[in-house]
Amino acid sequence: MKLSDLLKYDEDLKLEKSTVVILRWIALIGQLITIYVVHFLVKFDLPIVLCSITIFFGGITNIFIQFNFRNNQLNNTESTILLFYDVIQLSVLIYLTGGVTNPFIIFLVVPAVISSTLLNLSSTIFLSIITIISMLLLTFNYLPLPSEGNLHFHVPDYYIFSIPIAMIVVLIFLNYFGFRFGYEARRRGNALNRLEKVLAKEQELESIGHQAAAAAHSLGTPLSTITVIAKELKKEAVSNSNKEFNKDLDTLIEQAKKCGEILKRISQNQIVNDEYVINVTLQDLLFEISKSFEQISKKKINLDLTKINKQIHIKRSPEITYGIRNFVGNAVKFSKSKIDINLVSEGDQTKIQISDDGPGFPSDVAKIVGEPYISSKSKKVKSKSGLGLGTFIGKTLLERKKAEIEFSKSNLGGALVEIIWNNSDLIKK
Description:
Elements lengths: L2 H6 L6 E2 H25 L6 H21 L4 E2 L1 H21 L13 H9 L2 H20 L16 H80 L6 H27 L4 H5 E3 H13 L5 E5 L8 E3 L2 H17 L3 E9 L2 E8 L32 H12 L3 E6 L5 E8 H4 L3
Parallel strand pairs: 4-6
Antiparallel strand pairs: 1-2, 3-5, 6-7, 7-9, 8-9
């Protein structure tokens, strides 16, 4: 992850209102308990009234949010304003209770850290600047923290000045890693959401195909019956001088024939019996996929199925179909002119090897191929080319079906993708 990528990322994000309200109630109750324990039990002479008022206004804002915000989510701007208020409210409370000498000043960084994880970069920078300004002001301006007997703490100047420096370093460190982890988590989440949509669409399309095949199979018998009966009526009506009746029978037979031809075409492209709806051979699946790409591309696809001497029956699934299609599509996209697809059996494993004569995987991304939204320094391969998200989706779908995916350099000079199954996980018994 480059710093430049983080700086460009400024998505409008939202926080759950209920989560924000609960966390703020916990914080406010914690502040109230701490103040009253220190004042009444530890006997520190704190400005208890001013502290209580400060906490009270925090509670008022929480009630306002809870009952006056109709949306269940707070947008980025609303969340930023709320966290800004929390920084100010906590700064006032710390001002009243010893400034930088108050050990609870560490909590001043919390709003900015929350922003770095859950909000966009602009909000994080804004809240960080406000937090730093607050810490610097609290270094030079605060009400001293008294002890029992009104004896005030005396802290060396070098220690006082070192606190804001340490806090700023901690703030920058936590914000960077918080924003980076949040950024990567959101992008991975978006990738997974797209994967689920792709899978749902693939399942929908496959379901439609199965329904069409089932319809073709179901309609075949009654249509044949209609044709037979119509022909019998035609024989009986030979002597009938009613030309209109004979013409209607001819029309009926002709239309039944056309319906039969339509159902036949459906049957050729779809599945016509229950067993084949569920099962297919890996050889046929690879043949279908390769032919579909040959129809839309001028590039040569060499499919070698000769290295396996038996049919490999598998359960048809959208994960396997889409996953293989994705890697074949990538090979077609990045190749110069040639793609090789080999089906290989090695011991108790079955491999699909997809290779091309394209640029291959750049050295700087070779170890992270399969991660979402990868980018490369190579001019030949860019992040928007589909190498990142598309490969991630294909890899994840196939891994759901217990496949292992390996990426390397092919003999053709380009990329080699190997999809590997244990036969016990792949072959339908």
